[in-house]
Amino acid sequence: MKFGKQPAPVADINEDNLEVHKPKTEAAGVKAVMVALERAVAQAGVTRTAQSLLRLNQQGGFDCPGCAWPESATKRKAAEFCENGAKAVAEENTLRTVGAEFWAKHSIADLSGKTEYWLGNQGRLSEPVVIREGESHYSPISWAEAFGLIGEHVRASTPDRCVFYTSGRTANETAFMYQLFARALGTNNLPDCSNMCHESSGSALNPTIGIGKGTVSLEDIHDSELIFVVGQNPGTNHPRMLSALKECKDKGGKVVAVNPLPEAGLFNFKDPQTVSGVVGGGTPLADEYLQIKVGGDLALFQALGHLLLAEEERNPGTVVDRSFVDAQTDGFDAYSDARRELDWEETEKATGLSREQIETVAGMLIRSKATIFCWALGVTQQPHSVDTIKEMVNVLLLQGNFGKPGAGACPVRGHSNVQGDRTMGIWEKPKEWLLEALDTEFAITSPRHHGYDAVEAMEAFERNEVDVFVSMGGNFSLACSDTETLEAGMQRIGLTVHISTKPNRSHIVHGRTSLILPTLGRTDKDDKHPKGAQFLSVEDSMSVVHSTQGRLAPVSEHLLAEPVIVARMAEATFGPDHSVDWKAMAEDYDVVRDHISRVLPGFEDFNTRVRTKNGFVLPNPPRDTRSFKTDIGRGRFTVSPLEYLTPPDGHLVLQTIRSHDQYNTTFYGLDDRYRGISGGRRVILVHPEDLAELGFKDRDLVDVVSTFRGHDRQADKFRLVAYPTAKGCAAAYFPEANALVHKENVARESNTPGFKAMFVRFVPHPAEPGSAEESASLAAATA
Predict the structure, then answer these.
(1) Contact at 8 Å (CB) between 150 and 494?
(2) Is the pLDDT of residue 767 over 90?
(3) What confidence score (pLDDT) does residue 57 get?
(4) pLDDT at position 5, please?
(5) φ, ψ at 272 (rounded to 5°)
(6) Is 472 helix (H, G, I), strand (E, B) or coil?
(7) What are 16-62's pLDDT values in tens digits?
(8) Half-sphere exposure of 354 (CA within 13 A, CB side)
(9) What is the mean pLDDT of the chain?
């Protein structure tokens, strides 16, 4: 390992450097600490690293810009962060900067050949830049000119030809101002990263339990008797969740892991803050591991419901919470009738599991008096995702697993504050009560027609129906599906505006005119205000709202805070006589919070409550009062037909995954340590038996072809890697595999892209002149 500040890399990824080792069977440990420190110091040096990590996720400090896992109100550790959280902070803390010299040196043609790994590692954006139609390079522009250009383009367009995208990193106050800007303009075109991840969760939970959020607290995780971790890899994506699962295990709870890939974090956790995690064997986590086929979860939970009902029929009163079901739910009889019979042969085909495995886990459910179902994107990104989550809700309702300690539904959100953004009104399908409240508070007339979600925005780009696209954080071109179509559409837009901290691919596939506006990050001090330093707030996965305040000196004097950027865009668009006092909100974030307190239920006395030690918890009827604010005032059992993914002959089901050195579209490095993959990213993980049956070998170089409704998509030059994934299934990193997802391959109801639902086949990649593959091919032909 190299400790010490490192310059930005000059070389890009060389896929010939790919190394494959045996996958790990344990997560975290001392190695995680060493890697975290190495990456942090390389980006920011020792002093800046120490200043940031000691305040990370601490009371009065700043919230991790990575995942949305909550912190304990009573047992916060001195090092309240994980390896990937430290990497996320290092990316933001970096002392590397990207300014006028960088843009003068690198043309768009040059940058278009660079990977996201290379772009992101160049450093923090240090000044606003612009590129106009016909130009080959970005060049500096003043903030005043930039905002003038935005106002000019927005006024020249119509509201519904403007689109305002948001990533989950955006804080509550910024998100509120941003949606207010869009609605004051006259559009609900507010796609966000939720559209690509947990939209299916909200689409399933709102009609069944009356709220689109989870119904558990961190303490419930600790106190649960049984936790299912479904379609989720906490060791990489939410590492601090491993500590919570360990506490559950220490108290006698059990864990069931359901995943097509045997992820290290699901099996053994070596907590580096404990003696056993440093010198001992760690804590085994999963009591049962169900290696399910991609897309087989609906069949699994239908089978579990069938088995629970069968046991209740044999021993009445031992499984179903009849008092709860009768008093608080609707639709039980129809659900019970639908689950009375089960085709076990088809269930085993759909899941890849044996009847014995499913019955074993059903027995654990029957014995548990407090169960939590946790899930993430492995469940939400398939055509039948909404039905799958509704089926999980059915099983929870069956045993009354709402509103009691250690029980409930837990969609584990990815990006920090992605849940808060939705709470603040970032949604293309707003409820009437929100629009009425905004109109009353600000004397505006909000639009009532729905706007574009992420996929619909991409389709509007393609139809040349968007004049202005503003991206508040994020990297839209690599976050969504059908990459080639999306990038071609983005380049048709009149003006693209990217409010960013670092260079990314979306800056390169820009509109005819494009602005990059550098903003403060979570760790940066925000003190250029008449009343001094300001703080913001975020909401975690369990509905706790708390403050976040950076304390580090920004790397450039030309950075502006996101609320200031939103306010100045609005002022440049509406002029000085608008009914909304944008300047007051930009100068004092308490003003924003006062507005929020009058608009959003649960935020009463916001400014006082957010200043308390641990913030405050938003109302959650299923958790708080065991009640359901659905349209019928009850929890709703639903009935869905059996559905699973059935690829054509010669095809596998491909799912996208993150590397351990990655967060969403940001690459920290090239070491997927737990899976044993390093040095490269263009790999396809395939079961050895599938490789043999398809006529390929480990490390063959192939082009990957996906098929959807007769349409093919192709991504070239991937290495096949023999890996113990579920048979019939394969996995590849995103965003490299996003190009294979047809834009119409989406989840019903939620319109979430089908990143876990691709049918793919492989064709040998043509040997390139002078390559090792060509030499091997010639040698084989000669032989």
Answers:
(1) no
(2) no
(3) 79
(4) 62
(5) -70, -5
(6) strand
(7) 999 999 999 999 888 878 887 888 888 888 888 888 888 877 888 88
(8) 4
(9) 94
Greater model confidence, 299 or 777: 299
* Crossing angle of the two packed helices 297-314 and 355-367, in degrees rounded to 10: 60
CA distance 480 to 411: 21
Backbone angles phi, psi at 596, to 5 degrees: -60, -40
Place of tokens 């009914």: 579
Residue with token string 């192939």: 702
What is the enclosing helix (H) or strand (E) of 88? Answer: helix 83-93
Question: Could you give the CA distance from residue 614 to residue 80 in angstroms, rounded to a whole number?
Answer: 14
For residue 775, what are the contacts with CB-CB under 8 A and spacing of at least 6?
none
Of the chain, the percentage scoring pLDDT greater than 70 comes to 97
The beta strands (E) that lie in 509-591 are given as 513-518, 536-539, 544-548
CA distance 650 to 136: 44
Checking if the pLDDT of 724 tops 90, the result is yes
- Residue 444's nearest CA partner among 574, 598, 567, 588 is 574
Could you tell me the pLDDT band of residue 222, with boundaries at 50, 70 and 90?
very high
Which residue in the block uniquely carries the two structure tokens 């340590």?
673
Rounded Cα distance, 256 and 291, in Å: 11
Burial-class residue 649 by CB neighbours within 10 Å (0-12, 13-18, 19+).
exposed
Residue the block writes with tokens 């179509």: 485
**Would the pLDDT of 771 be above 90?**
no
Q: Please spell the DSSP secondary structure of 323-371, one letter per residue.
A: HHHHHHEE-HHHHHHHTS---HHHHHHHHS--HHHHHHHHHHHHH-SSE
Q: What does the alpha-carbon distance between residue 666 and residue 516 come to, in Å, rounded to a whole number?
A: 17
Give the burial class of 340: count Cβ atoms within 10 A of its Cβ; 0-12 exposed, 13-18 middle, 19 or more buried.
Answer: exposed
- Give the rounded percent of residues in the chain with a pLDDT score beyond 90: 83
SS (H, E, C) 282-329: CEECCCEEECCCCCCHHHHHHHHHHHHHHHHHHCCCCCCCHHHHHHHE
b/e 154-173 (16+ beta carbons within 10 angstroms → b): beebebbbbbbbbbbbbbbb
695 near 709, Cβ under 8 Å?
A: no
Enclosing H/E stretch for 1? none
pLDDT number for residue 772? 59
Mean pLDDT of 314-328: 97
Written as six digits, the tokens of 777 are 């091919």
| Extended strands (E) in 158-264 | 162-166, 226-230, 254-258
SS3 for 494? coil
Side chain identity, residue 198: H
Query: What's the pTM?
Result: 0.96
**Beta strand spans in 479-543 (E):** 495-500, 513-518, 536-539
| CA separation for the pair 412, 659 (Å, rounded) | 18
Question: Tokens standing for 223?
Answer: 């106190």
pLDDT bucket at 271, cuts 50 / 70 / 90: confident
Give the pLDDT mean for 573-584: 96
User: What phi and psi values does residue 702 have, to the nearest 5 degrees?
Assistant: -135, 165
